[in-house]
Design goal:
By secondary structure, the chain is mainly α. It is built from 23 helices and eight strands. Strands 1-2 form a two-stranded antiparallel ribbon. It has a two-stranded antiparallel sheet with strand order 3-4. A two-stranded antiparallel sheet has the order 5-6.
């Protein structure tokens, strides 16, 4: 790959888009200038044409049919690492890349963040984006040898620089594909039994036919309009493309409801934006809990108490919005959103909030809803990390079963209840730090929280046990055996045994103490975290996302463990050496 080759390819594509061969197209109204494009106008599409672009359907490389808006947002985020690059709307930026490849080839748009990668590229530490042209030195791709070396290195032995280098190389290749018009499959091939859709290059390669002629005409109107900024011609190209999709691709076109749901999700970012309302609900409800402890003897709130009502309204409103967004993702994907790490996290967050509401309606002191609001916000924040891909994708064959909805819903729902139990246990341990003869209301609150915690843990371990049994039935259907000691199966059993032990301490007189149950519920979440994260990302198995090579344990695991141990030890000393009377 050389600069000369890329520039020549871009010029040829621009010429092919603007002036198709005689006999393949109808007459055109405008002549075209083939000189290198000047700087494109910012957000040139206009609201009407942008909305038409966003609602067009395309087929991605995995065969999924999705709105063009989704493609534009995913690709622009992948390339620039910004939702809005230098004020560009994602759709306008993406279409400008297609229409003005000569300009964008020279423009710094490829995100570079890692200091070691900046040193490798020879750019200053302040540099945040580089151009595609800067990656070519004469006839050589400047990263060719380092990329080859990184690919030859086993995954477990790769340095952080090599990992970042491979991600950057992927970013460059995606951008290269966009500039060459190879990523936008808008045109369904007439009569194709596999329902294949092709991009601009695919249209040009098709033999002459009514479909090919109409597709080339629609493509020419769209691209020449984009290059010239001609709104009428852009609209004509979009409408012609939409007509082709309805005529030749109707069998695989998503429903109107599915498209609207996905477009709303793209613009609203609901799972990210609901995090702050959940945190606000946590702050109000926990304040209400300690206010009741200090001023009302820890008694339950009446439903119309202003402070409690405000916190509960915030929590229920956040939960309703969260549930609404989850249902829309189900509609947009055409299946239960449970198939990957991101989707399972947003469901666990939802289950946590539901668990908090169920037990809050019983307890009415702000503790259940308050701590569940905090945990829900934390889980949603984790789902927003770059580790988890929010893109909607097709199900892998082994997950294409009704057992996905049954097994995964039950077993991941149990994590929400057990997570709630962990924070309730932690809250009870904090109350032990307030132990004093002058605070009988604290003792009463510890006893009430102990009873509540027991019910929460029983519900959680019950759901986990049922989910594990249902997983065995699914395993028998998929793999011909009920149990195979796969890491996920093994750790699910370990977690059941951990919580069963904690709960059965209730029937041992010496262990039947609120501090023991609070400690078990609080620390037991470590087994859940191992079952979910550890197995999925650090071990190799039929259920894991790992590739067989263990990766380093994140630092937050050690920090979190130390903080948990610190609270457990401090609460034990307080319970051991202080008296209630």
């Amino acid at each position: 790959m050389t600069r000369r080759h890329l520039a020549l390819c871009a010029a040829l594509l621009a010429l092919a888009w603007a002036v198709p061969a005689a006999g393949q197209m109808h007459d055109h109204e405008h002549d075209h200038d083939h000189a290198p494009a000047a700087a494109p106008q910012l957000n040139f599409l206009g609201d009407g044409n942008r909305a038409l672009c966003e609602s067009l359907t395309m087929q991605d490389f995995r065969g999924r049919m999705k709105p063009l808006d989704t493609q534009a947002r995913e690709i622009s985020m992948k390339i620039t690492k910004r939702e809005s690059f230098e004020g560009w709307e994602p759709m306008d930026l993406y279409m400008s890349w297609l229409a003005n490849p000569e300009f964008w080839f020279e423009y710094p748009v490829l995100a570079v963040r890692f200091p070691g990668l900046k040193s490798l590229l020879g750019v200053s530490p302040e540099t945040r984006w580089v151009s595609a042209s800067s990656l070519l030195n004469g006839n050589q791709y400047v990263l060719a040898e380092p990329v080859r070396e990184a690919l030859r290195t086993p995954d477990r032995d790769r340095t952080k620089l090599q990992r970042q280098l491979l991600l950057f190389d992927e970013r460059f290749n995606i951008f290269w594909d966009v500039l060459n018009g190879g990523s936008l499959r808008l045109y369904p091939v007439a009569g194709d039994p596999a329902h294949t859709w092709v991009d601009f290059n695919g249209v040009l390669e098709q033999p002459g036919s009514e479909w090919a002629d109409r597709s080339r005409e629609a493509m020419d109107r769209l691209l020449s309009g984009l290059r010239a900024g001609d709104q009428q011609r852009i609209r004509a190209g979009l409408e012609a493309t939409s007509a082709l999709q309805r005529q030749y691709g109707a069998a695989v076109l998503p429903s109107a409801g599915s498209l609207k749901a996905e477009l709303w999700l793209n613009k609203a970012h609901p799972f990210r934006n609901v995090t702050l309302p959940y945190l606000a609900a946590f702050a109000v409800l926990l304040f209400a809990f300690f206010w009741s402890l200090a001023r009302r003897g820890g008694q339950p709130y009446p439903p119309r108490h202003p402070l409690y009502l405000a916190g509960l309204a915030l929590f229920v409103g956040s939960l309703a919005f969260h549930l609404y967004a989850y249902v829309l993702r189900w509609i947009a994907s055409g299946r239960a959103p449970l198939s990957n790490g991101y989707e399972s996290l947003i469901f666990i967050a939802l289950a946590t909030a539901v668990a908090g509401l169920i037990f809050e309606l019983r307890d009415r002191r702000g503790s259940s809803a308050g701590v569940s609001a905090l945990l829900t916000a934390v889980i949603l924040s984790v789902a927003m990390l770059s580790t988890f891909d929010p893109a909607i994708g097709p199900l892998v064959p082994v997950l294409a079963s009704y057992w996905l909805n049954i097994h995964v819903t039950v077993i991941t729902g149990s994590y929400g209840f057990l997570g709630l139990g962990s924070l309730l246990g932690g809250l009870n341990l904090i109350l032990f730090l307030l132990k004093s003869p002058r605070r009988p209301q604290v003792r009463e609150s510890i006893i009430k929280l102990d009873r509540l915690l027991f019910r929460v843990l029983v519900t959680g371990v019950g759901l986990l046990s049922i989910g594990t049994l249902l997983g065995g039935v699914w395993a028998n259907e998929s793999w011909g055996r009920y149990w195979g000691w796969d890491p996920k199966e093994t750790w699910s059993l370990v977690t059941i045994l951990v919580y069963a032990t904690v709960l059965h301490f209730r029937w041992i007189p010496a262990m039947n103490r609120p501090w023991v149950l609070a400690t078990g519920g609080f620390a037991g979440i470590a087994s859940v975290v191992m079952t979910y994260f550890g197995v999925n990302y650090f071990l190799s198995g039929l259920h894991s996302y790992a590739q067989g090579d263990a990766i380093a344990v994140p630092s937050w695991v050690y920090i979190g463990t130390l903080l948990m141990l610190g609270l457990i030890v401090a609460s034990y000393l307080s319970d051991r050496f202080r008296r209630w009377e």
